[in-house]
Amino acid sequence: MKTPAKAVTGKAVPTPAEVAPSETSAAGATLPGTTPAEAVIAPGKGEKAGKASKGRRSRAVRAFARRLAAGIAVLYGAATLAFIALQLIPGDPVATLLGPATTASEEVRERIRAEFGFDRPVLLQYVGYLGRVVTGDLGSSYQLQRPVWQLIGDQLGATVQLAVAATVLAVLIALVSAVTTAGRRRGVRAVATAWELVAVSLPSYWLGILLLTAFSFQLQIFPVVGAQDLAALVLPALTLALPIAGVLAQVLREGLEAALAQPFAITARARGLSQTAVRLRHALRHAAVQLATLTGWLVGTLLGGAVLVETVFGRSGIGALTLQAVGNKDMPVVMGVVLLSAFVFVLISTAVDLLYAVIDPRLRAG
Amino acid sequence: MHVFTIFGLSRIKLGAVAGAMLLLAACGSPATSSGGTSDKSGVTGSASEAPVKGGSLTFAADTEPVSFDIHVSSQDITGAILRNVFDSLIAEDASGTFHPWLAESWEVAPDLKSYTFRLRRGVTFHDGTPFDAEAVKVNFDRIADPATKSQLASNLLGPYTGTTVVDPHTVKVEFSAPFAPFLQAASTAYLGFYSPKTIAANAATLGSGGPVGVGTGPFVFTAYTKGQEAVLTRNDAYAWAPKTGGHTGPAYLDKLTVRFLPEASVRVGSLNSRQIDVAAAIPPANAKTVEANTNLSLLKTDYPGGNYSIYLNTSKPPLNDEKVRKALQRGIDIDTNVKALYFGQFKRAWSPLAPTTPGYNAALENSWPYDPVLAGKLLDEAGWTGRDADGYRTKDGKRLIIDWPLLPAQYVRDQRDILGQAFQADLKKIGVEVLRPQADIGTYLERVYGGKADLADYSWSRFEPDVLWLLFNGASKPQKGGQNATFLNDPDLTAWTDQGRATLDETVRKDVYGKTQQRAVDLALVIPVYTQSQVLGLGKQVRGLTLDANAWPLFYDVWLGKTAQ
Description:
The structure holds 2 protein chains of 2 kinds. Chain A is mainly α. In chain A, 71% of the residues lie in helices and 0% in strands. In chain A, helix 11 (230-260) packs across helix 13 (275-293), helix 14 crosses helix 15 (318-327) and helix 14 (295-313) packs across helix 16. Chain A is built from 16 helices and no strands. The chains are: A mainly alpha, B alpha+beta. At the A-B interface, helix 5, helix 6, helix 8, helix 10 and helix 14 of A face helix 1, helix 8 and helix 14 of B.
């Protein structure tokens, strides 16, 4: 039996986060996948509310402008790099588009060349492409003869569904694994660390087949073929989630252990909080800061993993679309997906910066 | 562990039923799963049961069409799926005989430059538009129009000049040169008919599939989810099935779902757990497992047309020397390697043409067996007598190197890369170094179809010996969409393959195509390797499934019987 957690409601006590030593605040400045500018300007905790609100507003506008400019730069860079990469792929683009098994005549080839502008100088193609992108026109797929926006739009829902489900699962699994084992006996930790390492190193392709064989082909709990409903989402989401959960759990446990070793945790315990309450209410908040730094990696893993998972499970989605587009050198689709991914990264990293302030009150400016 | 329990239970439960079923299967469909040769009539299930209408069937395909435009796509899978949606003017049975379909009868002009079809009346498209002479013209003109960017259908139309509407139910299709293969071409799904209304409204988007694909066939293209599935539903108005079908009137199935599962293990697992009814492309390694499952069976047919063969580039050294070419042909142990890699499921080939193709030259069988000693002697005679430090042959200090580019992984079928490794090892034994550089598809096409590589390997299925024209005629230049990777314009081969497509006289065709196969092997322009097989796995509940002349499954006659479990 643990001590009842009544004392927690005592408002007179400063919250643990406020009394925490500034050691962890350094984490905010060294985050990968976020714009460093925000992380640096944030720790203005010494400043008092006496400053004019006007100055705060102009600072916010400046910060916003900076973020917007950075976002546009990232998008431009992504579009340019993708264009260059596709140009560097050797071979006649028309031959690639048609594939090896074709009897398309020279006339048809010329027609395709002219229609897609392959006969124009590369620089002109590049400028033309950027011009269209700026006006919101991503062009039409060479292979499917449909606007790229429409294609991506059709496939996006399935991938978002998969990614969200995988993220939720991954976070839940990681939370359970880390919170229950952080700072526990050696044996318990070893078991938890072991499964996490295995999960991280499993190729998701193989993991998918494994889960399918067990839960779909043998136990027949989750169908792979039927209606693409919630039951059909479980296995693909789990395949995508497990390796991510492994990483998240490790980072989370480390953060939890660091936080639990700090004086505020001991103080909280001394005030009569149960071990679980300290973990969930106080230590977790510290650990979550580090978790948020992984968001960039997370988004990348989700997008990359979706390609494999969607192929193995025969699901529609951006991953399957991308795979086919890259294989067929369907440039407008590839570029569209690249731009979309860059956009998602910009959006997420911005959101994460804002999230830091929520998780870590020390980062709240003014 | 679990799997045995399931099977154990089912065996006990089945008891007498299974015995009876096996008996029926044994007399009803003798060659369907026995690795027989051309078993196109292999019908699953027994004939004694009365077909049942209704139900839905899921067919798992291994590839997904890039384009669903039947006039544009050159993929087998597009034709296989859309065969259920589109009808052709005529139907061809397994023996190569033509039967009326959307055309009641036809006349071929003596010069083979025009074909007149009298069309069946009362045929309507899924959108209610009547099928008539104008519809034929609109479709054929669309295929021939370069703006359509047809990758196969326009080739099937050959030297097409136009279609004349003689009266609402008679059309005359004309060509600039004699064109004998047209009847066969007209029987393929690629020369199927879209409703003129959908062509007018959706010409540019027919490739994206779904309800815009309006045909006259037994199934309606209801929905398509990219990366997932295509859904076809029964056309209740269907009343114009050809004689090649097993019944008349509408199809039995309410719904046919084509599920795209590129992973072989997922297809096999789904079939075993009865989540799907039919699975395409069962890998040879899994064939035995499927056969061992009492609830499943295999349906196997060899693909007609061009076998999987290696073509030798004669335009440059060292393969411009016939002796070196012959040495390669005899220095590869095809028998052993094909048997080992494909578990005996695929047959080794002796001719560039598959045995199920009309005009196949059976005299070639066993005429050029593996003979490494002869191969070595031929290389000696060709002057490759030196040996370098690594044991490879040399001539004037230069090593005998053969450049054989490998397709990018996503295009490699049937583990042909592994088969290539075995051949590489065989040739090393006679002192030939084979390089297999793997690059992207663009580089591959540039090297192989540009004539820079020494060897090319591919198959080309089609139920018509005219495929030999594509493979060996001097005009079939790879740089211009042809497939003659021997880069040789041999006067005989060109004359014979031209002659074959300019006559309907079966004896002449048999003669010229037979000679073509013989000469191509004699000159060592080609090393035939194996005949591809379509290996379908199906649940015992699936009845009436047949494979057409192109080895594609036909779902028109399929119905669902009582399930065994």
